[in-house]
Amino acid sequence: MAEKELKNRVASVKNVQKITRAMEMISAARLRRAEQRIVSLRPYASAIRRMTRQAAEAAENIPHLPILRERDEIGTVGMLLVTSDRGLAGAFNGQIIRAGIRAAGDVERDGKDVVFSASGRRGVGSLNFRKRTPAGAYVGFTDRPAYANARDIASDLIAAYVDGNVDRVEIFYNHYISPLQQRVTRETLLPLQQASILEEAEGDEQEEDTREGQGHRALVDYEPEPEEILQRLVPVYVEISIFRALLESTASEHGARMTAMRNASENAGELIDTYTLQMNRQRQADITQEIMEVVAGAESLV
User: Fold this and answer.
1) What counts of helices (H) and strands (E) characterise the chain?
2) Is the pLDDT of residue 47 over 70?
3) Beta bridge partners of 238
4) Is 124 in contact with 116 (CB distance < 8 Å)?
5) Between the CA of residue 255 and those of 26, 88, 139, what are the distances in Å?
6) Other Cβ atoms within 10 Å of 9 Cβ, number
7) Most buried one in 73, 144, 213, 234, CB count within 10 A?
8) pLDDT tens digit sequence for 90-138
9) Maximum Cα–Cα distance across the chain
10) Are strands 168-178 and 76-82 parallel, antiparallel or unpaired?
11) Upper half-sphere CA count for residue 53 (Cβ side, 13 Å)
12) What is the mean pLDDT of residues 257-266?
């Protein structure tokens, strides 16, 4: 490879490295804001789950509420995939899509149908590519989701469940652990009796009991009746659960992109060193060749 071509490659890789470093810094700044939103939301989400669970335990007529009516048989499962609008985030989107498709295959092998919904252009595009057109496509807000976005998604999923279009609603998202680690999480939102996300409430209640020491917990008097409270509370529970998943996914996205761009910058640095070494060797070979030509020419004159 000629020295000029190597020099052009070094310049090109340096330009790419500048872009990846800039993207890493942007993702790091956005990640800090996303972490703050998660920290602020988690206590509220835990309280909503705890209240919903307590009201469900106190209610006696849950089957009479349409949103809480549990199906005798599961015929159709609704699956919401939470992805991002942009790529360049490593395996962030791919692992959610693969998990959703794999779960759908398991459900369909049991003779059930699957209805997909997706937030984020990556998830929507991937489902369309696989000929699994999503019933709901929600895009344009994954960088900074608002509660209104979660309310729109929850409204469609609740309507599909109440109308009987789906018999169970599940959600797939990346749970944020650290910038280097995100965990694919699958949760059941509806029906409430099967909601896996409420299982965390048991741990919350145990922690609360521990803080209270040996004292007994106060009994709760409901006004109005628990059934009416639950009917108002469940939509909020679904909305806050989806909103938390969106925030977790956003933080995971920024963490994954920051890590991916850092790795890309390091790989670019290694590539620059390799090309620079090749360029120096080529220059040395050219100089040696020129010296040998001069010596040969001088010997021919003797």
Assistant:
1) 6, 5
2) yes
3) none
4) no
5) 11, 11, 20
6) 18
7) 234
8) 889 999 999 999 999 999 999 999 999 999 999 999 999 999 999 999 9
9) 115
10) parallel
11) 18
12) 91
Rounded to 5 degrees, φ, ψ at 174 are -90, 115
Pairing state of beta strands 168-178 and 181-190? antiparallel
The b/e string for 133-164 (b: 16+ C-beta within 10 A; e otherwise) is ebbbbbbebbeebeeebbbbbbebbbebbeee
**Closest C-alpha among 91, 93, 68 to residue 83:** 93
Domains along the sequence of the chain with CATH: 22-258 (3.40.1380.10)
Q: How far apart are CA 172 and CA 190, in angstroms?
A: 14
Place of tokens 């092998």: 109
d(CA 253, CA 260): 10
Sheet of 113-119, strand order: 136-138, 113-119, 76-82, 168-178, 181-190
Contact 246, 119 (CB under 8 A): yes
Closest CA to 38 of 140, 173, 169, 156: 173
Conformational region of residue 90, where left means phi above 0, alpha means psi within -120 to 50, and beta covers everything else: left
Q: What are the backbone dihedrals phi and psi of residue 300, each rounded to the nearest 5 degrees, phi first? A: -70, -20
Residue 200 has pLDDT above 80, yes or no: no
What does the chain come to in residues? Answer: 302
Residue pair 81/175 in contact by the 8 Å Cβ criterion: no
Res 302 pLDDT > 70: no
Instruction: Work out whether the CA dihedral 92, 98, 101, 102 comes out positive or negative.
Output: negative
Share of the chain residues as helix, strand and coil, in percent rounded to the nearest 5: 65, 15, 20
The answer to whether the pTM exceeds 0.70 is yes
For residues 245, 248, 251 and 253, what is the CA-based torsion angle, rounded to 10 degrees? -60
